[in-house]
Write a structure and sequence with these properties.
The complex is a heterodimer of chains A (222) and B (463). Chain A contains 7 helices and 10 strands. Chain A has 222 residues and is an alpha/beta fold. In chain A, a hairpin with a 4-residue loop joins strand 1 and strand 2. By secondary structure, chain B is an alpha+beta fold. In chain B, helix 1 runs antiparallel to helix 5, helix 1 runs parallel beside helix 6 and helix 5 packs antiparallel against helix 6. The two termini of chain B are 50 Å apart. The chains are: A alpha/beta (222), B alpha+beta (463). The interface between A and B is small, with 9 and 9 residues.
Chain lengths: 222, 463
C-alpha cells in the first residue's frame, strides 16, 4: 500500500531545473534512502514531499491527499498531523532545554505534555539529559533530541535530510540504530536523503538521483 | 419628534432588536444541533409569540397589571439565568443535566415544549410590558399613532438586524450550546428588558433594588425581632452598623457578586476540569489532539459567558452612581397648623400635589419640627406619610423613578405601595383628602413622630 506517490514531478528555478520529471511510489512502512551528489535534486524532492516547497509541475500524493491542492493552512495542519522532519542542523531552540524543545512540537500539534516528552527523550537514550540545553549536548545527542521531537506526534512519515551529516561514524551509527529500533517499533515510513553510502546500508530501498532524475531504484535485502 | 412619538418608536426598536438578536443566537444553536424541524419551529415561535403578547392589550392598565408584568419580567430573567447556570454546570462536569432520564426527556415533544417555554419567558413579559406602556400613551393621546410608531420600528429593527446578521449566526455555531443560548437570552433581558412602570432600558437597577430589598428584609427582621435591645442608645448604635449592610454600596457589590460569581466559578471549573479521553484513542498524540479539541470547544463555549460577565460589570459600574444623582429630595416646605390640623391645598400657585413628585412639608408641633410628605400614587390617589419609617433614624425619603428611597438604609419603596405600614415603609398618616385639600390632624402627626423619636420598633404602633 503506497503512502507517497510522486507523478511527473518538475521543479524549475530561474537558472536551472532541480527536478526533471520524477515518478516515485513509496510503500507504507518502508525505509527509503535517496542518495546522490550535491545538486542532484534529492533535497528538493524531499521538501516537496514534505509540503515545504511547491513543484513547478506534477503531483504529489501523501496518504492519498494531493498536497499541492491544499491551502497553506491546510498544508500546515497536514504536515503537523502526518510528517516528522529531521534536518542536518538540529534547529533546536537554544534557550529551551531538551524536554521543552520536544514539548514545543507537542504545543504546535495539540497540547504540551511534559511527562510524555520526557518519556520520548528516555526512549532515545537521553533520560539523563532532560533539562540540558542544546549547547550542553553533543552533536549526536542534539540529533537524538531532534528525532524525539520529530516523532513525538506519532507521524506516519519521517523525512530526514542528511540527519547524520554533522556526525562522526560512531554517532552516525548510534543515531541510525536508534532510528531502526523506532522504525521497527512504530512502523513509520522513513525517507532519508544522504550522500553517505554508509547510511544507505541501513535502508530497505535505495534511490539514486542525478541531475534531477532517478537513475536507479533498488531494494536492499536483509 | 415629540416624546409621544419618540418613546414608542424607541421601544419598538428595542423590542425588535431583542427579538432578532435572540432568534439569531437560537438559530446558531439549532444549526449546530442539525435539527431542521426545530429551526422551522423556532421561526414559527418568532411569529406566534409576539402576536400572543398582543393579547395583553385586552388587559386593563392598572397598577396591579403593571406590578404583575414587572414581576414576570424579573422572574423570567431569573428563570432563564438559573436554567442557563444549571446547564452550564452540567456541561462543565461533562454530564447530562437529566442523567439517565435524558433519553426520555430529550425527544421531539419535550424539546418543542422547552422551546415554547423558553421563548415565552423571553418574549411575552417584555413585549407585553412594552405594549401596555404604549397603550397608556395611546390612551393619553387618544390615537393609534404610538402603536403604529412602535410596530413600525419593531418591524424595521427586527427584519433589518435579522438580514444583516443572518450570515453571522452561522459563525456563532461553535460558540453556542444550550446553556450559552439561554444565557444570551437572559443577558438580552437583563440589558434590554426592564420595568419602569411597564418598560425601561435595563433590568439591572431592578435586580439591584430587588436584592437590596431582600438583604434589608432579612437583616432587618433578624435584628429587630431577635437581637436589638430596647435601649435607644444601643438601638441607634446598632442600626448605624446594621444600616451599612443594606446600604447602597453593599447591595451594589452583592448584586454584582450574585450575578458574576456563579459564572466565574463555571468558567474556572469548565476550563480547568480534566478531559476524559474515550477508550479506543491509543496514540499519545491522538489523545493530546482530542484533549485540545475539547479544550478549544470549551474555550469557545466560554466566550458567551465571558461576554455576559463583561457586560454585567460594564453596566453595573456605568449605573452605580446614576441612582444617587437621579434622586429628587426637595426641601420641606414649612406649614402652619390651624384648628389642630394642617391643611395643604391640592393645587396652589407654583405647586400641584398631583404632579407625581414628592411634596415635603414641615410643621412645628410642641417645639418639634415634624416632617411629612404627600405624593400621588400610580392609581392617581394621594397619600400622606411621615418622612420617616419605624426602623431607621429619620433621615427621610428621596424620590427615584417610580419609587422612594430611604436615605438612611437606601431601601426602595414602590410608590404604589405607600400607605402600607411597617418595616421601612414611610409611616402612613390618617388624612382627610378632599377635592381641594389634604387635612392631617396635629395629634396624628405628633403621636407618630414621637414614636419615631423613641424608636419603639418592637411594639406595634396604634393606627
Amino acid at each position: 500500500m503506497s503512502i507517497i506517490e510522486v507523478q511527473s514531478l518538475r521543479k524549475d528555478y530561474s537558472t536551472a531545473a532541480a527536478l526533471r520529471g520524477v515518478d516515485l511510489v513509496i510503500e507504507k512502512g518502508q525505509w527509503v534512502s535517496i542518495i546522490g551528489p550535491s545538486g542532484s535534486g534529492k533535497t528538493t524532492l524531499l521538501n516537496i514531499i514534505g509540503g515545504l516547497d511547491h513543484p513547478t509541475d506534477g503531483k504529489v500524493f501523501v496518504k492519498g491527499t494531493d498536497i499541492n491542492a491544499l491551502s497553506e493552512d491546510e498544508l500546515s495542519v497536514f504536515r503537523r498531523e502526518n510528517i516528522g522532519f529531521v534536518f542536518q542542523q538540529s534547529h533546536l531552540i537554544p534557550y529551551l532545554d531538551a524536554t521543552e524543545n520536544v514539548m514545543l512540537a507537542q504545543y504546535f500539534h495539540s497540547l504540551p505534555d511534559r511527562k510524555e516528552a520526557e518519556e520520548a527523550l528516555k526512549r532515545v537514550g537521553l533520560g539523563h539529559r532532560l533539562t540540558h540545553r542544546p549547547s550542553q549536548l553533543s552533536g549526536g545527542e542534539q540529533q537524538r533530541v531532534c528525532i524525539a521531537r520529530a516523532l513525538i506526534n506519532n507521524p506516519s512519515i519521517l523525512l530526514a535530510d542528511e540527519p547524520t551529516g554533522n556526525l562522526d561514524r560512531t554517532n552516525t551509527r548510534n543515531v541510525l540504530e536508534l532510528l531502526r529500533r523506532l522504525h521497527q517499533e512504530e512502523h513509520f515510513t522513513v525517507v532519508m536523503v544522504t550522500h553517505d553510502p554508509y547510511v544507505t546500508e541501513w535502508a530497505e530501498r535505495v534511490i539514486k538521483m542525478e541531475d534531477g532524475r532517478i537513475i536507479t531504484d533498488e531494494s536492499v535485502s536483509g | 419628534m415629540s416624546l409621544f412619538q419618540a418613546e414608542p418608536f424607541l421601544i419598538g426598536l428595542k423590542e425588535g432588536a431583542k427579538l432578532s438578536i435572540a432568534f439569531l443566537v437560537v438559530r446558531a444553536y439549532l444549526l449546530g444541533l442539525k435539527r431542521e424541524w426545530l429551526l422551522w419551529f423556532s421561526r414559527l415561535l418568532v411569529v406566534v409569540l409576539p402576536i400572543l403578547s398582543g393579547l395583553c392589550l385586552f388587559l386593563p392598565v392598572t397598577p396591579k397589571t403593571q406590578s404583575y408584568i414587572s414581576l414576570s419580567v424579573g422572574y423570567s430573567f431569573g428563570l432563564l439565568y438559573l436554567l442557563s447556570l444549571g446547564f452550564l454546570y452540567s456541561e462543565a462536569r461533562g454530564e447530562d443535566l437529566f442523567g439517565v432520564l435524558s433519553p426520555l426527556i430529550v425527544n421531539r415533544v419535550t424539546l418543542s415544549a422547552f422551546m415554547v417555554i423558553a421563548g415565552a419567558l423571553f418574549v411575552l413579559p417584555d413585549l407585553s410590558g412594552s405594549l401596555l406602556y404604549v397603550k397608556t400613551q395611546a390612551e393619553l393621546k387618544e390615537s393609534l399613532g404610538p402603536f403604529l410608531n412602535m410596530l413600525g420600528a419593531f418591524g424595521v429593527s427586527a427584519f433589518s438586524l435579522y438580514f444583516l446578521l443572518k450570515n453571522r449566526s452561522e459563525r456563532l455555531v461553535s460558540l453556542v450550546g444550550l446553556p450559552q443560548c439561554l444565557l444570551v437570552l437572559a443577558l438580552i433581558k437583563l440589558i434590554g428588558g426592564g420595568t419602569r412602570g411597564f418598560t425601561e432600558l435595563s433590568l439591572i437597577p431592578s435586580v439591584q433594588k430587588g436584592l437590596m430589598k431582600l438583604i434589608h428584609d432579612i437583616v432587618h427582621q433578624t435584628f429587630v425581632t431577635l437581637m436589638v435591645p430596647d435601649h435607644p442608645i444601643l438601638k441607634t448604635t446598632t442600626w448605624n452598623f446594621i444600616g451599612i449592610l443594606f446600604g447602597e454600596r453593599v447591595s451594589l457589590w452583592l448584586s454584582l457578586f450574585v450575578l458574576f460569581v456563579p459564572l466565574f466559578a463555571f468558567v474556572m471549573s469548565y476550563l480547568n476540569s480534566p478531559v476524559e479521553v474515550p477508550e479506543g484513542i491509543e496514540l499519545p498524540a491522538q489523545r493530546r489532539k482530542y484533549k485540545r479539541q475539547i479544550k478549544n470547544k470549551r474555550l469557545l463555549r466560554a466566550v458567551p459567558v465571558f461576554l455576559f460577565m463583561a457586560l454585567i460589570v460594564i453596566n453595573w459600574f456605568a449605573q452605580r452612581n446614576e441612582e444617587i444623582t437621579r434622586l429628587y429630595n426637595p426641601e420641606p416646605k414649612p406649614v402652619v397648623a390651624e384648628d389642630n390640623k394642617v391643611v395643604i391645598p391640592i393645587s396652589s400657585p407654583g405647586e400641584d400635589l398631583r404632579d407625581g413628585a414628592v411634596h415635603k412639608f414641615t410643621v412645628d408641633v410642641k417645639g418639634e419640627d415634624i416632617r411629612f410628605f404627600i405624593i400621588k400614587r400610580d392609581d392617581g390617589s394621594l397619600v400622606a406619610c411621615l418622612d420617616a419609617c419605624e426602623v431607621c433614624p429619620p433621615e427621610g425619603y428621596a424620590q427615584g423613578e417610580g419609587y422612594l428611597v430611604c436615605l438612611y438604609c437606601r431601601t426602595p419603596i414602590n410608590i404604589q405601595s405607600l400607605g402600607k405600614s411597617g418595616g421601612c415603609n414611610p409611616i402612613p398618616l390618617k388624612a382627610l383628602i378632599t377635592d381641594r385639600d389634604v387635612q392631617i390632624a396635629l395629634g396624628e402627626l405628633y403621636r407618630k413622630w414621637e414614636f419615631v423619636k423613641t424608636k419603639h420598633s418592637k411594639s406595634t404602633i396604634k393606627r
